[in-house]
Design brief:
By secondary structure, this protein is α/β, with parallel strands linked by helices. It folds into two domains: about 110 residues, Urease, subunit C, domain 1; about 300 residues, Alpha-Beta Barrel (TIM Barrel), CATH 3.20.20.140. α1 packs across α13 and α10 crosses α11. The chain is globular, with a radius of gyration of 22 Å. The model has no long low-confidence stretch (mean pLDDT about 95).
């Protein structure tokens, strides 16, 4: 088996197994073969079939993204950047997002654009929460990414007829059928010849799933040894809906059914019982998350656009909640997301000490890996998968480079990423995706959006023209 050696890097973000922390290593090397890391440190004296000069580079583990929607979100660029329903606490979920859904022809372009952006921002593992679509597994495999395939299913769909009341159309048998199809798809994913696909069980949203579907899906995740994720505590509307139905908060209701655990991931987890927008008579939600080992998938951008945010990342961490990071929306740029996590947490806490860059990077690597049940990703250590990112520390935006991780997250971002390896295979080189024609996919998506925009008024409850729903930044001159 051929050995690849990244030799004498300026900095390697290695893993201290004894302390279980990331550490900076100066002048270190990384060797890997057959997709597995064989050595991290100084003084490699073994053979090497390929040697990559690490001079001027920081070598770090690939980022782990635990919540993303590649098949739909890229379509929304330029459409829902500034809109939320005033009658639904500024959420865009119920009134606006259904207007701009991708059609079957557009979905592959959406996926390729999103996965390209993820790779370019250093992501090597992503959880793809999508509704099943034709050719999904092969499309994911072609990207070269490691993908947690997470087909969503539900017992009901939501809709609004007036912009201020959310209604639900229930079909529990259809939900059960969809879960069976999702589980079969997960089986196929884990048998895929790429060897980089694995599964997660995902009942879509807490308010669209019947009690039985939630319990059955959780039991399936347990018996299969898979992670289980659900969108919950993601809107004020949902919070009030669940308290109306059950007299418990969304987190409290999940806990009452035994659905919070170390294998459980809460997508967003913003509106707890002590959130100012949903202040409830209890004060136990955060403790429930911590005590059960539940992970929160934090995706700040999509909510910040609507003036909504978690309160706050640092507080959750200090209470002992495992935190992971996702890119719920466009752009699918993990480094941008990390920067926003830090700034929102500090402004919400009114305290620059509420979290550190160490906390951020941990969430984007080992926190995400823990949530997905993987000990072999999110760190550079012998025996782990060779998911590696090389960062140009000589890039002008990385300098001064006293602390290269801070320079990467708070200044340079994806502009400094040079190479990305997944399972030891190079998928990004010199800032260019090797596995996907990103420009071609973006051009095709641009054409697809025109088609979606043309039909959008028919999807809208009030049949409004798109320029009324989402006015352009400037008036178009005639």
């Amino acid at each position: 088996m051929a050995i690849t050696l990244i030799k004498d890097a300026d900095v390697v973000v290695g893993w201290d197994a004894g302390s279980r922390v990331h550490v900076y290593m100066q002048g270190a090397s990384v060797a890997f073969r057959d997709g597995v890391i064989a050595f991290v440190g100084n003084g490699w004296d073994g053979p090497a079939d390929q040697v990559i000069d690490g001079k001027g580079m920081m070598v770090m583990p690939g980022l782990v993204n635990i919540h993303s929607h590649p098949s739909s979100e890229p379509m929304n660029k330029g459409l829902i950047d500034e809109i939320g329903s005033p009658g639904l606490y500024n959420s865009s979920l119920y009134e606006y997002m259904p207007i701009f859904r991708s059609d079957a022809e557009a979905i592959p372009h959406c996926v390729r654009v999103a996965l390209s952006e993820l790779l370019l921002s250093g992501v090597t593992t992503v959880a793809d929460l999508s509704m099943a679509h034709p050719g999904w597994l092969d499309l994911l495999a072609e990207s070269g990414l490691r993908v947690c395939v997470a087909p969503m299913f539900r017992s009901a769909r939501w809709f609004t007829k007036n912009g201020h009341v959310v209604e639900y159309e229930w079909d529990e048998k259809a939900g059960e059928k969809a879960m069976g199809e999702a589980l079969s798809l997960i089986d196929r994913a884990e048998q895929h010849p790429s060897g980089r696909l694995f599964g997660m069980v995902v009942p879509a949203q807490i308010d669209t799933c019947a009690d039985g579907l939630l319990k059955e899906s959780f039991e399936e995740s347990r018996s299969r040894g898979l992670a289980w994720q659900i969108h919950a505590a993601q809107s004020v509307v949902e919070f009030h809906e669940i308290t109306r139905r059950h007299g418990l908060t969304p987190i409290g209701w999940l806990d009452s059914m035994g659905l919070l655990s170390e294998r459980s991931i809460i997508g967003h987890g913003i509106f707890l019982d002590d959130h100012p927008s949903t202040k409830w008579h209890t004060d136990s939600d955060l403790g429930r998350l911590a005590e059960t080992g539940t992970t929160v998938a934090h995706c700040p951008t999509v909510f910040a656009r609507r003036g909504i945010t978690l309160k706050d990342f640092g507080r959750y961490r200090r209470r002992g909640v495992n935190m992971g990071i996702g890119t719920d929306t466009y752009p699918h740029n993990m480094l941008d997301e990390l920067r926003l996590v830090a700034y929102l947490a500090r402004t919400q806490a009114g305290d620059p000490r509420t979290l550190t860059t160490t906390d951020l990077f941990d969430a984007a690597t080992i926190g995400g890996a823990r949530a997905l049940g993987r000990e072999d990703i999110g760190r550079l250590a012998p025996g782990c998968r060779a998911d590696i990112v090389m960062v140009d520390v000589t890039h002008p935006m990385m300098r001064p480079a006293r602390d290269p991780m801070r320079s990467l997250i708070y200044a340079a971002g994806d502009r400094a990423i040079r190479s990305v390896f997944v399972d030891g295979e190079k998928v990004v080189e010199d800032g260019r995706v090797l596995t996907i024609d990103y420009p071609e996919a973006a051009a095709a998506l641009d054409e697809a959006q025109k088609r979606i925009v043309a039909r959008a008024p028919q999807q809208d409850w009030a049949h409004r023209p798109v320029d009324k729903v989402s006015p352009p930044t400037f008036r178009w001159s005639r």
